[in-house]
Amino acid sequence: MVIPKTFSSWLVMTSLLRASTSTADKVAYTDHTVTSIKALQTWYYEEEGLWNTTGWWNSANCLTVLGDYGVLDHDGFIDLDLEDVLAITFTQAPQASQATNKMLMRSQSYHLIESHYTKSSRSGGSYMDSRGYSGFLNSFYDDEGWWALAWIRAYDVTNKTDYLNVAESIFADMQGGVNGTCGGGIWWSKDRTYKNAIANELYLAVAASLANRVSKANSYLEIAKNQWSWFKKSGMINNDNLINDGLTISANGTCTNNGETEWSYNQGVILGGLVELYRATGDPGLLSTASTIASAAISALSKDGILHDSCVFMRNLHYLQLEAPRDEFRTFILGNADSIWDTDRNSSNYLGLVWSGPPTAGGDPNAGTHSSAMDTLVAAMAVV
Fold first, then answer.
1. How far does the signal peptide extend, from start to end residue (predicted)?
2. Residue 248: which H helix or E strand, with range?
């Protein structure tokens, strides 16, 4: 078939226009991200290597979003002195004293975990009481998982093995939470009273991530494969392809889905874990399962195309989109990024909790709400 010259020229011009538009969009999302990083860093407290206005595990997520940005724009990462931020946090955060107390809040309609950080009387109350553990460990295995993933991403962007080594040491502590109750899996805390989704998803994600990065990959890969085999049979994934908060352990030892809140972070972390496990195994079924969960979450947890339970879902949807792209995922990421920038940003460029805006909805912005929204801006950079 002969293509007319005019039509051929039109195709070339259309292709160039699309490429130009895509490049312009990437520049815009990058600019938005850089502006947001500068705003985030106004909360950074170098003496403790943590971010004021948020807590211990949330600071790990602040670190992760900076690393994700660095993977996409290494020159910008260096220009913003973010490699120094990683180094400061690595040195200073283990010396910071933060005692984390978490409370299970139950009612007929929700199941919520509240984190409380206990102030110390030292130095006029500017420090936290001791966690009682060294390094990046505390009483909660999910907190440890967040820090392990943060240091894995720090390794990805710097290639410094110290960061990977500390991730391995954190994971070694997490392994102490595994037992045969409910047929396997890891406890949420060292009190060993609850097996929930987030701790187990993080355990999977860390194991699979290490399997893709360390020399003794086989041991981590076996752990990750066994963890996923247990998780998908645990009952936490419901008939709507969504993940409930955790398991109810009955007096006779049987474990069932507790039917409680389908938090977006539980729909998100599993995506990242399955992407890493796919990279380690090449099993396309893992991406298929992840895509099914992602689509179910987008349908159930958004209104007018905007996610209404903001957390780390977008970070992990970004990871999935790079391996198993769908127009649905890309459109959702970009739409949320645009909404955040247009309606959920205040005059100081702080980003709030509710991505449909205004930035004060649900309370004033803090480092936790801001870094969560930043995950979406970074995701937009990656998928545009």
1. 1-24
2. strand 247-249
Q: Please calculate the CA angle 269-270-272 and round it to the nearest 5 degrees.
A: 65
Adjacent-strand bridge partners of 257: 247
Concatenated DSSP letters for 76-95? HHHHTTHHHHHHHHHHHGGG
Over the chain, what is the mean pLDDT? 90
**pLDDT tens profile 139-172:** 999 999 999 999 999 999 999 999 999 999 999 9
- Of 213, 205, 210, the C-alpha closest to 275 is 205
- Among the listed residues 232, 226, 330, 315, the one whose alpha carbon sits nearest the alpha carbon of residue 275: 315
Q: Which residues pair with 112 in a beta bridge?
A: 105
Of how many residues is the chain composed?
384
Query: What is the distance between the alpha carbons of residues 360 and 26, in angstroms, rounded to a whole number?
Result: 28
250 exposed, middle or buried (CB, 10 Å; 0-12, 13-18, 19+)? exposed
Q: Write out the two tokens for 196.
A: 């929930």
Cα-based angle 34, 50, 101 (whole degrees, multiple of 5): 130
pLDDT computed for residue 109 by the predictor: 34
Angle of helix 284-300 relative to helix 327-343, nearest 10 degrees, comes to 40
* Residue among 382, 380, 276, 373 nearest 37 (CA): 373
Q: Please state the rounded mean pLDDT for residues 298-325.
A: 97
Residue 328: pLDDT over 60? yes
Q: Tell me the mean pLDDT in the region 84-105.
A: 80
Q: Let me know if 128 is exposed, middle or buried by CB neighbors in 10 A (0-12, 13-18, 19+).
A: buried
Cα dihedral sign, 199-201-207-213: negative
